[in-house]
Amino acid sequence: MPTMKKLTPILYVERIEPAIAFWVERLGFERGAEVPHEDHLGFLILQKDGVEVMYQTRSSVQADAPALAERMPMEGSLLFIEVDDLDAVERALEGVERVVPRRKTFYGSEEIFVREPAGNLVGFAQFGG
Fold first, then answer.
1. Is the pTM of this model over 0.90?
2. What angle do CA 96, 101, 107 make, to 5 degrees?
């Protein structure tokens, strides 16, 4: 069997720009590779502490791989990120829409779920706290 080296979600969105401040200004991610498409970003990599998230626009996928675009639903995703300080995450996300308020789970975490500006859900969980 092959070794799996890394898993990076690619969030498929109409526009990338509205989501940038959520990741960069609020959570401290850094912008990596950026690819323009028409009058906006078509692709963007965001990275922090070994966590990587990619965004690609629908129009960029349609231009690059039309067959793929035809088979991709435009419905959003849910990311689950383990953190070491949920209190700090909550402070950083003050004013962001909470989908699930802070809670303790049966599997041993405290977590919150929010909606980022491009419409995807992001859960943050701290275990053993």
1. no
2. 130
What are the tens digits of pLDDT across the range 13-29? 999 999 999 999 999 99
Q: Is 15 helix (H, G, I), strand (E, B) or coil?
A: coil
SS3 87: helix
Instruction: With beta carbons less than 8 A apart as the criterion, state whether 127 and 106 touch.
Output: no
- At 103-116, the pLDDT tens digits run 999 888 999 999 89
Q: Are 55 and 44 in contact (CB under 8 A)?
A: yes
Residues ≥6 apart with Cβ < 8 Å to 114 = 93, 96, 97, 98, 99, 121, 122, 124
Confirm if 47 and 30 have CB atoms less than 8 A apart: yes
Amino acid found at 57: T
Residue 42 CA to residue 63 CA, distance in Å, equals: 10
Our measurement of the distance from residue 25's CA atom to the centroid of its chain's CA atoms, rounded to an integer in Å, reads: 14
Separation CA 106–CA 109 (nearest Å):
8
In 3D, which of 50, 8, 19 has the Cα closest to residue 121?
A: 19
